[in-house]
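Record type: ASSEMBLY
Status: queued
Input:
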Amino acid sequence: MQAQEDLSVLSPDERQEIEAELGHYPNKRAVCIDAMKVVQRHRGWVSDESLRDIADLLEMSADELDSVATFYNLIFRKPVGRHVIMVCDSVSCWVMGYDRLRERLMKRLGVKVGETTADSRFTLLPIVCLGACDHAPVMIVDDDLHHNVDAENLDEVLEKYK
Amino acid sequence: MATEKVLTSNIRPDLSYVDIAAYESSGGYEGLRKAMTLAPGQVTELVKQSNLRGRGGAGFPTGMKWSFVPMGADAPRPKYLVANADEMEPGTFKDRLLMEGDPHELIEGMATAAYAIQADVAYIFLRGEYLLSAERLRRAIAEAYERHYLGKNILGSGYNLEMHVHLSGGRYMCGEETGLLNALEGKRANPRTKPPFPQVSGLFGKPTIVQNVETLCNVPHIVKNGPGWFKSLGKTQDSGTKIYGVSGKVKRPGLWELPMGTTVREILEAHAGGMRDGLKFRGVLPGGASTDFLVADHLDVPMDFTGVAKAGSRMGTGTMIVLDDHTCPVGMVRNLEHFFAQESCGWCTPCWSGLAWAEKALSAMEDGQGQPGDLAHLEHICRLCAPGNTFCALAPGAVEPLQSALKYFREDFERHIAEKRCPWRSHE
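Status: finished
Output:
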């Protein structure tokens, strides 16, 4: 799969966005989480090559940076599909029908939680409480928060993401 | 008494952006202006007198926290103020409302608090998923710089403050004060040893105050209207208003700003509309996932720090999660322990090991594999994870819903074991 190859160095845009963050902190390594998120915004995930480039730029070792990367839920160290679905699996959504929503999502997409569809359209991931508990169950697709998602309106929500 | 809205008075029903002109026209930035006419220590003194306590869960007195920061010419610089906007406590959704609905209130609160401790730099440590909050806070910060509420020589006072937004990489541990500081330094969000306390040696080793969003939003109102006014807002000895929330199977889940000390019953019945038709109330986590269950006997408990503590739980974040009689209490606790086991940072053994075992035992029980010794085992884990045995508050918080469920819903646990099934699950 093409998306898994990521041998290029940081693009001028990525470098510029990372350098803009450097002014907000007293040292370079403090920017490392922001830097990984910059790269992820451009490429969908953080490859080993990107990790090395960021580490070089911030004067860290790649291993040190990877220990940070793997700690955080929102840094992806594996390729993802064109759209990432993050479905809340915390307590309020569970009370309001998370189990049914998860089953429906897995059946509709033909993948388990943590997997990507064969056509690379969707990656399905669990996420902790999204802070919209009065509209449970909720999920995020890419940058959009969707309220009150259930078996009835799920197809309509997913339809927007090609 | 008519409820006086303080924190949410500018928030529009359609939640559209409140810009700096709209904010100023309703009295915005007057608290900061007034603070600038006072000495920094006087601002801290006003907050101390108001009896404002932290709204993030722990309830520590805010003014007292600020008074630990080294002041004067010899104080280490730069000093930092951090807004803890990492709203990750399951069932908690109040800070999102404040940041999306009226972002300038947080910025004014931060600038006022920063002036009191003479901070040089302020960060908003924001959940990575709160993208609308990020967009609006950044827009509001830019407006505040333009009007000289931030930046160099604020309002001609000679005081300087920079403010930045940091979007988190996402982990519950980032809400823990010292875990948050490590995350801001670009490290794993493991907790730090205390002492030294962050007020003396925090972010990048410098004096730092970390404060919840709702707490900070109260500050300019206290400075503007005085500590006496603030105290009079509460129904009990705990001051101010509180943003309460309800989720679960009630008729009208939502958020309401009410006088501190409003009873659990009034919040659940008058505001959340009571249980959905056909469902009965069984219990409630009063202040997020890491608080002990309250049950029907506690409905008249005032939702303040003292009242909920007396009832054996914590007010926490003040956002309640309701358990109804059609929902399995064991399943609910299993969901909670799954969260805590997953979010444990792995730093200390009672937490990473104990919570994983708790989740395993509860999952087995739900799947009909429960054993007679399981309840004693779970109680043992609760004792191992008690305060004092762990590095931070994650594990003690994690076992609060478990230990109270074992107390109040014991017969439901026993049924799972005796019947070798979850009685709430339908059988094929």
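Annotation: Chain B touches chain A through 58 residues (CB under 8 Å).
Annotation: The mean pLDDT of chain B is 96.
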